[in-house]
Amino acid sequence: MLAVPGLSANLISFEFLGERLDPATVQLVSIDLRGRGLSDVTGPGTSHG
Hints:
- By secondary structure, the protein is low in regular secondary structure.
- The protein has a domain of 34 residues.
- The chain is 12% helix and 8% strand.
- It has 1 helix and 2 strands.
- A two-stranded parallel sheet has the order 1-2.
- The longest helix is centred in the middle third of the chain and has 6 residues.
- The relative contact order is 0.28.
- The model has no long low-confidence stretch (mean pLDDT 80).
């Protein structure tokens, strides 16, 4: 399952979900949008690459 947070949230928003899913049947992958949560903050118009 891929979990993508809204603009004002980060990957921690899905911690409650990960705790409730059975890891034998579902793999939860959550990502941070650039500048949110654990991702790097970059200037406007920049890209990581």
